[in-house]
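Q: What structure does this chain adopt?
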Amino acid sequence: MKAIIPLAGRGTRLRPLTHHTPKPLIKVGGRPVLSYLLDDVKALGIEEMVFVVGYLGDVIRDFVRSEYPELRPHFVVQEVQDGTAGAIKLAEPWADDELLILFADTLFDADLSLASTLPAGDAGIIWAKEVEDYQRFGVIVTREDGTMERIVEKPDQPVSKLANIGVYFIRDYGLLYEGIHSVVNSAPGKGGEYFLTDAFQYMVDRGARIHTAPVTGWYDCGKVETVIETNRHLLSTSRGGVSSGATVEGVEIVEPVRIEDGVRVAGGRIGPNVTLERGVQLENVVLEDALVGAETRMADVRLAHSLVGERTDVKGVEGSVVLAADSVVRTG
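A:
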């Protein structure tokens, strides 16, 4: 099995953080989003992966090669942002085996090992999460046996509440790419894009059986408010705690928090839902629902609902901010 991971987006909803950091490398719970994904894929024994890169692609290349040297990566550039089908089409030269396709906008709790139990002759699996706000998503209409009948983008009527989360296993990769070629040789859809889900529909219309599989958790990392929400989930379940290598004096701690090695905090209140990465220095600071990048310095600050990049210098600021790495913001 091989994995294909599209990573070419510009991450406009996370600006200015994404001016210098590609969206998949934005940290949540103290780790880049992409690292959670790669660990899940590695756990299946997959070593060969195709990364479809674009914006700040060299940064992603460097990260994968330095942090995951055991992988066999291939990198292909998506020069034109022409949609998900266009992205996966670029991986075709390496798509000669069963495929796991994952989009790096979300974290999820799902059993990817189901790929190994797919009945012989069936074409694939789409992981899906039941949601109430179905109008925001592409939803999967299933047959009685749980296989896909069709996908409807952002329906007005509740034809289904099974939201497509962007995680797929495809055994019949030949039929997938036949479908992708059909899609990209047709008129583009909304926004001038070609959608991978249309290729799945092509497969189903030709008799392929694509199963749906449940997702117990689905956590968006594509915009400021959802990064903060996902951070809370991670701190509450697996990534919280105060490192023994941190110095915390005269500070009220409100769990959940993550405070890493080398952090020094004097006075104020930290939490709930705050991540302080390594080497952060705080004096008389109140933080709630905030992620603070490594080596940042703050004094006399009160922030909530904020994302602060690495090596930032902030003094005398109150409210909510989103600051790129190496920013300097001082008042008074």
